[in-house]
Structures are given as structure tokens and as C-alpha cells.
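Tutorial, part two.
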Amino acid sequence: MTDQKRVHIVGGGLAGSEAAWQIAQEGVSVTLHEMRPVRMTEAHNTSALAELVCSNSFRSDNWETNAVGLLHEEMRRCQSLIMAAGDQHKLPAGGALAVDRDAFAEEVTSRLETHPLVTIERNEVPGLPPADWDNVIIATGPLTSPSLSDAILKLTGEGQLAFFDAIAPIVHLESVDLDIAWRQSRYDKPGPGGTGADYLNCPLDKSTYEAFIDALIAGEKTSFKEWEASTPYFDGCLPIEVMAERGRETLRFGPMKPVGLTDPRNPGERPYAVVQLRQDNALGTLWNMVGFQTKLKYAEQTRVFRMIPGLHEAQFARLGGLHRNTFLNSPKLLDHTLRLKADPRFRFAGQITGVEGYIESAAIGLMTGRFAAAELRGEAIVPPPETTAMGALLAHITGGHISADSGSGSRSFQPMNINYGLLPPADDTPTHDAVGRRLKGKERGMAKRRAVSSRALQHLDDWLQNDRQRQHQPDLC
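Running the prediction step on this input gives:
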């Protein structure tokens, strides 16, 4: 294999950064093209690679009974850069893995900048990459430039690639009234780096909640441009005011649910609703409003969110916003190794493939990087088993989704988070506990999840071992 062989990656987000790391760790040269800071996006604030533009949470870190936590553990076993940086810069967040967003991005950037096989070029790739790039990964994520989006549309014959999601505000801790808000994780779960008191909780009684809902619905929102009017939202990241419009109780059973929380000032009475804030930086000076992504105008955000008890004098380090996301109809357009069927020199990674979430995006980047490196080495590409979280996610977006195009021509494929419904059930799920008592209800469900997770990690380890053996075969390049 000559030194001229290399992979080009377009996009330095989580997926592109992870793909670049995996390729370089496999001994293959890689050039990572990132347009920031030459051209910024409407959502990014820095030029750092893998900048987190929305939440700072990677969600649950429990691999035994949570599919996201299982994906975390699988990626750790694959020597993931994103997970290594996340673990190094974790913050208290109950059962979740949250990170100091700036330190995390700086860590990823530093490791890639100092890797001898990684070249970083700060430039925009307008339209499709040049014809002489014969192994390309497009990892431009939800903020793909219009010129590249248009080129992909022409190449694939698709009619639409976009949807919208939103980002949540960040509050300065010193402006939170801690005589009202209290520290507690839901159900007192400590989680990685936590104590069980990792969130700030702002309680609302019924009348305050009702007034807050009225203000959300009536508040002035960011208006769509004419061309944006028909672009849908992704249900996993709905603006809070859109949720409120779907029903007055929606938020009480969603991001404002009070379950698992006890106000120490009213220990015998559960709050009617609760707004939670999660630590956003290592200093603990910034806290984000959990689930409070919004398209309210800035002045309205300040007015409406200060109605929340404990936030009546809130000072915002960042207000919420709306941004346009892009994703492919992957079951129709991509093969099982994430190559574009219409032009196999292109692979896709991250949110553009139709996954939702930081970790899901990085996981697709991890697999795409390994596939691209294997192709350059002349090795057979073997995806991870569908019994693993990574394999199940890959299978879903490249063919497991039923009816990617309906008879009417409308697209039903939508971005997907990892979940146990994507993995086949385990055959050896226990039916009784250690003392012979039959498992029922929630206990039975947890036993099923543990069985699926244990099998996934065993199968992943086997896959990694076989992958290492394939690498020791003669080079065919």
C-alpha cells in the first residue's frame, strides 16, 4: 500500500472526528476538511472539532439496562476518541454522562492535530469533492452547506434532505435562586462522576405551570423563511413551545415531569412540574435547561423562562435557537458499509445518515472510518453483528427500516436514536431470580435488557478479535 493512499473526510463534527481517529489508528493516512472558522454555521460558536452545539449530555451511561449506555461501552471497547474525551472531561449528571463542552472539544481537536497520520485542512468543500478523491467520507452532519446539499440531491435524485431541530438555553449559576431550586438527580442516581444531587430543580405548582404554558404558546416565535415552511421537525428534539401546543399536560409527562424528585422544602408533596438544569462546564458556573430547546425569540425567552420559580433573575450565557438539519433516505441510498449506491467512492457518517444523538452520530463515524480503512488495505469489510448496538443501528439505517418509501412517494424514514427495539431479543433471558421467584413486569423487562446487553458485548468482543485477525492477513493493496 503506497503512502499516496488516504481517506478524505468532509466535516469535523463528532462523526468526522471519530472516523478520522479510527482511520489513523488503523495505520491509514487521513485528511479532515473542516470549513470552520473560514465559514461558520448558524449554530457553532468556535472552530474546535467535535463542538457540541446542543446539549452537553451523552445521556445514560448504564450499559446493562440502557441502549445508549450499551453503545457507550461498545465504543469504548473500539477505542473511541469521542468516548475517551468524554470520560476525561465528564461532569456530574446523575446516571448520564455529561461533559464540559469546551474542554471536550479541545481534547478531541488536540489529539487529532497531533496524530502523525492526520492532516487537518480548514476549508470549505463546495459541492461534491474532487474526482481524484477516491475514498471519501461525508460527515457534514445536520448543518451541511447548501452547495453540498444541492449536489447530493442531484446525485441521489432525492427531493428533500432537511428537517429542523432546536437548542436549549444556558444559565449562569450565580443568577439561580438556590433558596427555591434544589440539587437532586432523579431517583437520586449518582451515575458517572456524580453524587446523586447533580441537577438543579425548579418546582412549579399548578397555577404557575398553567401560566407558564399560556406564555409559551402565546410567545413570539422565530418565523420561517418561505422555503423553510414545509420542513418538518424531528420529534426527538421538538421546541418546548411546540410540545406545549400539542397538549397542556405534554410537558408534565416530558421534560418537566416531577417523578423521582422531592422538594426538600415540601417533603410530603411532589411538585406539579419541575424544570431541571444540568451542569454545562467543569467550573460549574454554567447550567443548561434540560429539554428546553426553543424557537422563541430572544426577548421572549428571557421573559417567559424567568417565570420559572428559581429563575426569576436568570442571566443567560446562551439563549436557545433553531437550526436546519440534513439527513439522507439511507435505507434507499446507502449500502451495508455506508457507501452511496449511486457513487461508491462516497461514504456517509453521522447525523446525515439518519441517526439522532451525539453518540449515535459518533458510532456511525467509528464504523465508517473502520470500513474505509479496511477498504484501502484490501480487506473484507465485515460490519459488527446486528446483535450489538452498533450493528443494530447500522442495520436499521441501511435497510432495517420498513417502507423507506411508501406507495405515494413520501418518505417515512426518520432519524433514529439507539434503542432496544433495534436489537433482537436474547434467547437465554432468565425467567426467575436467584431464589427461584418468577420475574414479572419491570423486573422481567430489566432482565431482558441485561441479557441483550451481555450478549451484545460478547459478540462485539468476538467481532473485534476477528477484525484484528483479518488485519494480520497479507496486504492486498
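The chain has a mean pLDDT of 88. In part three we will examine how such features are distributed along the chain.
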